[in-house]
Amino acid sequence: KPKVLGYRERAKLCSNPITQRLFEIMEKKRTNLALSADLTDSKQLLQLIDKTGPYICIVKTHIDILEDFSEDFIEKLSQLASKHEFLIFEDRKFADIGNTVVHQFSGGVYHISNWAHIINAHTVPGAGVIQGLKMVKTQNGCGCLLIAEMSSAGNLATGDYTQATVKMAEENKDFVIGFISVSNLSPDPELVHMTPGVQLECGRDDLGQQYLTPSEVITRRGSDVIIVGRGIYQAPDPAEAARQFQVAGYDAFVARLTE
Length: 259
Ligand code: 5FU
Prior knowledge:
The chain is 41% helix and 17% strand.
């Protein structure tokens, strides 16, 4: 069984500055919690992020669900990222030919390459999607996660598709920093695993989302980061909920370290 490394050791082994920084933040703040910030009003979203900032290592955005997007929102989000020390992950799920994703990543209304530290991509188009994204000049030296598995019922990212995705990650480690997955797919300490579909109780929503607990995801399945949306922002006290997920996620990691 491979030895489980602490976050500081992982940081030292990472040649990519984004994963290095991520593991340093995780060590310093003792958190493997990513907030899935899926509110549609920018003022409410910034308030949520400011309140939960102390407990998280990443804010994951869906920038295209904001009803009132502005440059000012990006400015304030970036200020909060500096204030609380977290990385910004835009969950755009690029999934087109290389030439198209170049424009989707760098241009349009959102100019994602100017502000995101982390992005992600489906591998269904083949390696061209990675080659395209990699060409774009970025502000923060952005790293890319490949969607190797999904949390939703009946998804097709399984078996050979998942394995081919792992291979694409291993072949593109200058830009690919890991996976969206619901299990550990590679022992390489430079590749980070992030898992959505997390709540404090197992269950599902009405539209196919399936939830696992922090201990199932981190201790048993060997993922690195839990991604939590409604479990935090729909809670009566989101800051308190974030604190609970931080503790549950970190305790689950300590349990894996010491088991
Ligand atoms: F790639 C994936 C996936 O497989 N499942 C997901 O749920 C991404 N997600 C995202 O994580 C989804 O788009 C939401 O932004 C978030 C989960 O939110 P929840 O409210 O915790 O269910």
